[in-house]
Amino acid sequence: MTTGLSLTLITILLFVPPFIRGGEAKADKDAKSVVSDEQSVTVLGSGSVSDTDAIKSVELDVLSVAAPHSEEPKYSSTFADTIVSYVSPYVYVYASADEESEPVGILKPITSAKIVLKGDDWTKVELGEVTGYVKNTSVLFGYEAETVAKEFGVTLGYIKDADAQVYDLASSDGQVLGTIPAGANIYCVGYDENYTRVSYEDLEGFVKNELIRYEYAIERGQTMEEYKAEELAKELAAQEEERRKEEERLAEEAREQALVQQGLDRYIATEQREAVSLSDEDLWMLACIVKYESGWQPYEGKLAVANVVLNRMKKSGLSISSVIYAPYQFSGVANLDGTPSEYFYNNYLTKELSYRLSESNAEECMRAAVEAASGINNIGDFRYFIGTAYADYGSYADYKTIAGHVFYTY
Questions:
Q1: Residues 120, 124: Cα–Cα separation, whole Å
Q2: Where is 403: in which H helix or E strand?
Q3: What are all long-range contacts of 22-27, with beta carbons under 8 Å and residues at least 24 apart?
Q4: Which of 151, 342, 376, 384 can bridge 371 by disulfide, Cβ–Cβ 3.0-4.6 Å?
Q5: How far is the C-alpha of 177 from the C-alpha of 164, rounded, in Å?
């Protein structure tokens, strides 16, 4: 008579549904019925047993292993009764467990709500004085919620049971800056595996991790009333900002207009000055630069540009070509070596293209060059000019505005 139980029998016992799913009482009853006598039992030719006690012993061990596990221990954390939203742009909290019901709250990403009752599909939550329902698939619970809070929330804590010394370094070798009493709430700035940088009242330094209990805080979700009030406040703030910017724009525009008008008020009437002797080539060059810089302006603007060139020539004692081709003076006109740029040469100076001066205000450009050379001046001694859009009026010692240019001196 064999006393050992075959491996095949153990396997059968492990997977027989009545033993596994029927509960201990039923399983025990069924087990007893299987071994009601000492008759030899053969299982799939794997051997036989006749020792009742041995069978019972093995069967009960199998039942103990196969029985359903007891409930897992409940998650213990400050987030055990808190959900955290992670859906962008937001999750609605509804009046009832129905997406067709009225929204009573809103959870933006990384905001929380207190759990009232968790269901299979919906969870009842509390937002301030309001309760509602949120779909479970849209929020995080327990460990996942706490993990997100650790990553994105504010790390808080309190000193456990004993006063904690605060060091200036993350080491007990550091200088003691002060002491935080047991039970005090602290704000955790950052931490490593041994020390946490904390802030408490006016004290900031490092405290041993073992002395701190950590909590992670994230912003609570909003009731619909709170959300609407916030959105209204944002809208009003945006309107106020827009109004402020418009007032600034209008004030700046008024300031610019006043400066322009001030320049116009400083208009210097045309006066006769000493004539300048220029060759035909010099007059041609002067007419070309007038065309280049102010060909689209009224005659007063053309005459002013011609006089700027002549004022520079008189001041420096240089030739008109040296003044016009001086580097960085007339944008796009000259190369750095003092020669005319290809564009200016081909489009304004070349005799074959002289028809450009026979068209579109060309007569006024030549007239301005001739009259300026004859001593007719409408800008006084100004030697610089710039487009009104780029003028820095505050930096000029004196200036006047003609058409689209501001003529000035430092």
A1: 11
A2: none
A3: 24/63, 24/67, 27/63
A4: 376
A5: 11
Instruction: Write the CA distances from 385 to 90, 113, 211, 294, 328, integer angstroms.
Output: 57, 66, 73, 11, 13
What tens digit of pLDDT does each residue of 82-106 get? 999 988 899 999 999 999 999 999 9
What digits encode the pLDDT tens for the residues 297-330?
888 999 999 999 999 999 999 998 899 988 888 8
SS3 of 338, please? Answer: coil
Locus of tokens 């540009």? 305
Long-range contacts formed by 226-231: CB under 8 A, 24+ apart: 226/128, 227/105, 227/106
**Mean pLDDT computed over 50-76:** 37
Domain ranges of the chain: 7-66, 75-231, 271-409
| Domain at 75-231, CATH from 3.90.550.10, 2.30.30.40, 2.60.40.60, 3.60.15.30 | 2.30.30.40
* Amino acid present at 63: L
> Measured between alpha carbons, how far is residue 182 from residues 185, 195, 238, 398, 406 in Å?
9, 17, 46, 72, 73
SS3 track for 162-187: CCEEEECCCCCCCCEEEEECCCCEEE
Phi, psi dihedral angles at 213 (to 5 degrees):
-105, 130
State both tokens at 58: 């093995």
Q: Estimate to the nearest angstrom the gap between the alpha carbon of 315 and the chain centroid.
A: 55
Q: Which of 312, 80, 332, 331 is nearest to 322 (CA)?
A: 312
Residue with tokens 């400066």: 259
